[in-house]
Amino acid sequence: MPIHMADLGSDAFEQENTLNLLANEQQQLEEIRDALERIRLGTFGQCEECDVAILKARLKEIPYARFCVACARKQEQRS
Q: Mean per-residue pLDDT for 30-36?
């Protein structure tokens, strides 16, 4: 158990950072599971918003992408 107040702050930051990383990993795993389901259904690589094909370059960078670039931007603006 740290004694100095600064150490307590550092420990709290580290713990919060670790929890955020775990949450991000959990979200990414869910996206991957969803992408595997889209493969099974035959809809993988198709934008869920506008039904156009997602560019292969985008899928190469984000294999679990659900939206084309244009629709992903719209989704970000809504958030």
A: 97
Number of H helices, E strands in the chain: 3, 0
Q: Which two tokens mark 54?
A: 């997602």
| Dihedral sign (CA 3, 7, 13, 15) | negative
Instruction: Please name which of 39, 78, 22, 77 lies closest in space to residue 65, comparing C-alpha atoms.
Output: 39
Q: Which phi and psi (to 5°) does residue 53 adopt?
A: -70, 135
Q: List 46's β-bridge partners, or say none.
A: 53
Residues 66, 47 contacting (CB under 8 angstroms): yes
DSSP state letter for 44: T
pLDDT digits (tens, 9 = 90+) for 66-78: 999 999 999 999 9
